[in-house]
Design goal:
Layout (H helix, E strand, L loop, with lengths): L3 H9 L4 H7 L4 H9 L6 H11 L4 H4 L14 H16 L25 H22 L1 H20 L5 H23 L3 H18 L2 H17 L3 H15 L5 H17 L3 H14 L17 H14 L3 H14 L5 H17 L3 H17 L3 H13 L7 H14 L3
Length: 414
């Protein structure tokens, strides 16, 4: 009888591991370990692979659940959250709106970093920060392949390490790199693989016993559902993230999660809950810069919370407070966060449009479109087109016609 790994290898045929990895949120080294029997799969991964390969259930039939767990004990709340998440993934209908795109770069893969133990971990974290800064500055065209290669490198190290304390520390690193890969996929419109990637990252964080990272990735996944218009699912995930974080997650993570959940509350017309979450986010902010802020939430500051305040106020139909919040955010926004600044321009455009200031709305929306295009952000370009749809009643207005001409001839979708 074939093992699971042998079945996977047979069904993969001539397809490369890298191409198969591109259809899922898992690294080629992890898939290689599945084929060679060094790693055991879990059902959600098997289902994703079965569908990616068009195997018609053959891979699922070869799946026999792993009966051992070498990781640390997972908190009951996080365990419940991961079950909820897996149920959401099984429903699959939200994947129909996935947009696939690619981003090519001239950056080559790099060899394994030298050293071992804490020295090697520190080097990887430094590299992760550098890649993250590059992504914020140049977007997917400047960092996508490098992001994937770094995570693959980390996962190779993770799979080669036997269970124990060192593997748990590597799992924490892998959760961080997996989260960055997932966000990169989210940004270029690969919503299905992004969602699964955040699930992978949360699972690695759970293995490492890192509640902050697990909660952060659950919160990031809620954003994917929000972009897809699945607002109640988004709110459920955000609720789960806040519960997972509890009072033990880092204050920066808890602050950001409240800001995100506040926005999701606004999308389902829960104004009181939205205001309460914004208040909670701001009250936690002074504790965020304690010298131990995790690298994946390093961007959390007053400008980030102002951005979410603007989104939330717009959603609640309060354009003037939204515009004030967007203006505050722009005044403090870090210059290196180029990609994220598109969100601020979109928030300001929505507020200007709601107050019938069409010319100013078009001006800032043009800035957003330019940034989204230059950074290859399908996610941000999607929000630009959403605002453009609201301009339909004014399509004969001169500035609207000029904006449409700019989109058609001056840009081209990322």
């Amino acid at each position: 009888m074939e093992t699971f790994g042998q079945t996977l290898r047979r069904l993969r045929g001539t397809r490369s591991l890298r191409s198969l990895a591109g259809l899922t949120s898992f690294s080629k080294s992890y898939l290689h370990d599945l084929e060679t029997g060094r790693r055991s799969p879990y059902r959600e991964l098997v289902q994703a692979l079965d569908e990616a390969l068009g195997a018609g259930g053959q891979l699922l039939a070869a799946y026999r659940p792993d009966e051992h767990d070498n990781g640390p004990e997972v908190s009951p709340v996080l365990e419940e959250t991961l079950r909820l998440w897996d149920d959401l993934l099984r429903r699959r209908d939200f994947l129909l709106t996935t947009t696939a795109t690619t981003a090519a770069t001239g950056l080559a893969a790099f060899p394994s970093l030298p050293g071992g133990g804490s020295e090697r971990l520190a080097a990887h974290y430094e590299l992760h920060e550098a890649i993250g800064r590059l992504g914020n500055l140049r977007g997917a065209p400047g960092s996508f392949e490098l992001t994937l290669d770094h995570h693959d490198n980390v996962m190779t190290w993770y799979h080669a390490t036997p269970p124990g304390a060192e593997r748990s520390r590597i799992a924490a690193l892998a959760s961080t790199t997996a989260g960055l890969v997932a966000f990169a996929r989210f940004d270029i419109g690969q919503y299905s693989t992004a969602h699964r990637g955040f699930r992978e990252a949360a699972g690695l964080a759970a293995e490492a016993g890192d509640i902050s990272a697990a909660a952060n990735n659950i919160g990031q996944a809620s954003r994917v559902m929000g972009v897809l218009g699945r607002h109640h699912d988004a709110l459920n995930l955000a609720d789960a993230a806040v519960r997972t974080a509890g009072s033990s997650a880092h204050p920066a993570v808890r602050s950001w999660l409240h800001a995100v959940r506040g926005y999701h509350h606004a999308t389902v017309d829960h104004p009181d809950a939205a205001y309460a979450d914004l208040d909670a986010a701001w009250s936690l902010l002074p504790q965020a810069d304690d010298g131990a802020k995790p690298v994946y939430i390093g961007y959390l500051d007053a400008s980030e919370l102002s951005k979410w305040s603007a989104h939330t106020r717009n959603q609640l139909g309060e354009p003037r407070p939204a515009l004030a919040a967007a203006t505050d955010a722009q005044a403090q926004w870090p210059g290196i966060m180029v990609r994220g600044s598109a969100e601020l321009h979109v928030a300001a455009a929505r507020a200007h449009l709601a107050t019938k200031d069409l010319d100013q709305a078009i001006t800032v929306l043009t800035h957003a479109a330019t940034i989204a295009n230059s950074t290859g952000s399908v996610r941000n370009f999607r929000t630009v087109t959403d605002v453009r749809a609201r301009l339909s009643p004014y399509r004969d207005h001169r500035s609207v016609a000029e904006f449409d001409e700019y989109l058609l001839t001056g840009l081209g979708r990322p």
